[in-house]
Amino acid sequence: MTAGSGVQHSEMFPLINQNQTNPTRFFQIWLNLPAKSKMVDPHFVMHWGEEVPKIVTADGLTSGVLYAGELMGRRGLPPPPDSWAFDADNEVGVLHLTLKPGGEISLPPARGGQAINRQVYFLEGSQLGVGDRKLTATPSSL
User: Which single residue of 69, 88, 96, 104 could bond 65 by disulfide (Cβ 3.0 to 4.6 Å)?
Assistant: First the structure.
């Protein structure tokens, strides 16, 4: 979604199961638009789970969902126009990765050597290594 010049926002999800609970895990990432885009027309796209590209490493120990950006030769679905992710120079990548014990994945360096912020949110498991740092079971971010 690109809020731009304004949008009404609410969370509404279709029920998957009509006769039982519908558990939801919800994670939102908001990126502030640059000044030149603050008043663009608002826009929304829905990326349905079955349409979003999936990745799996050769050893099968790491899998992921690629919501935005590129990884392992795959590209996420097109982002909304005028969004931060729409400009390829921003190198926005949003992935949900699942690593089994011993699983690993390397993110490619930024093109052109520009400084890129990367954020990791550790949601489940007992330990996660990022470079030479170890995250423990308490949810943390780098």
Answer: 96
